[in-house]
Amino acid sequence: MPFANIKVPQGALSRAQKEEIVHSITGLFVHYFGEAARPHTMVLIEEVGDGGYGRADEVFVVPDAYRARDSLT
User: Fold this and answer.
1) What 3-state class would DSSP assign to 11?
2) CA–CA dist 53, 39 (Å, integer)
3) What is the distance between the alpha carbons of residues 67 and 8, in angstroms, rounded to a whole number?
4) Cα–Cα dist 39/31, whole Å
5) Pure H helices in 1-73
6) What are the phi and psi torsion angles at 44 (to 5°)?
7) Would you say residue 73 has pLDDT above 70?
8) What are 25-64's pLDDT values in tens digits?
9) Bridge-based pairing state of the strands 3-9 and 58-59
10) Does the pLDDT value for residue 10 go beyond 80?
11) Rounded to a whole number, what is the largest CA-CA distance in the chain?
12) Cα–Cα dist 20/59, whole Å
């Protein structure tokens, strides 16, 4: 079973954007593995809360300007 685990900052993506990611990644797996992979493909989008990750030794907080307007899950 193809499996993708995507981690994004909490509130950064709208529901529509998450759906688009699921469809796009599923399509990518189908492209490589064939149509038989579609019903078995799992795409998990995990939202990581502010302060739950870092970059270059700095704890990261997403500025409000970069949050999705419709970030309801």
Assistant:
1) coil
2) 32
3) 11
4) 14
5) 15-33
6) -115, 120
7) no
8) 999 999 999 999 999 999 999 999 888 888 889 888 888 8
9) unpaired
10) yes
11) 43
12) 28
